[in-house]
């Protein structure tokens, strides 16, 4: 791991999201749309329609280095597993599965580490929920956050934060 990366805390990469796609929206209603994933409001959510699989896909304005994904579900409407895939420098056009997580069927914020070296230079991610704890396959997600840093396009590592380097001296 790069020394500069160890010295700085991961940042929310939400401001670098260019597009968000979801597999479905309950009844096609904007009330339950993808925009609710990032609005910071505790009472709004993305709610998928019934059926499996479900997913959330993000593209970024520039390559990023991802270290953590945070998800807050509605208990009873949770993905039994979550498959984290990304387009990387090694696979710029095809999503590669990098991790599989098993979220708890609960309302708490759940943080999942991204430890794959391939996540050091990512342009798109997909979180796929092959199954749901809901009998009808619905997923309800109140919050999604992706943490890390903008990537250094030449060296395939996180760009150091000049302020963090000055404070470390």
Architecture overview:
The chain has one domain (3-154): Jelly Rolls (Sandwich). It is built from 2 helices and 10 strands. It has helices at 3-7, 162-168, and strands at residues 11-12, 17-22, 46-47, 54-73, 82-88, 96-101, 109-113, 122-129, 140-152, 157-158. With 169 residues, it is mainly β. Strands 1, 2, 3, 4, 5, 6, 7, 8, 9 and 10 form a 10-stranded antiparallel beta sheet that branches.
Shape: globular
Q: Please state the second-level CATH architecture.
A: Sandwich
CATH superfamily: Galactose-binding domain-like
End-to-end distance, in Å? Answer: 19 Å
What would you call the structural class? Answer: mainly beta
Number of strands: 10
Domains counted in the coordinates: how many? Answer: 1
The total count of helices amounts to 2
Low-confidence stretches: 160-169
The largest β sheet comes out as: 10 strands, antiparallel
Mean pLDDT: 89
What fold name stands as the CATH topology? Answer: Jelly Rolls
- Cα-atom Rg, whole angstroms? 16 Å
Name the descriptors.
169 residues; mainly beta; Jelly Rolls; globular; disordered C terminus
Q: What's the short version?
A:
The chain is mainly beta and 169 residues long. It is 7% helix and 42% strand.
Walk me through the topology.
Elements (H helix, E strand, L loop, with lengths): L2 H5 L3 E2 L4 E6 L23 E2 L6 E20 L8 E7 L7 E6 L7 E5 L8 E8 L10 E13 L4 E2 L3 H7 L1
Antiparallel strand pairs: 1-9, 2-4, 3-9, 4-7, 4-8, 4-9, 5-6, 5-8, 9-10
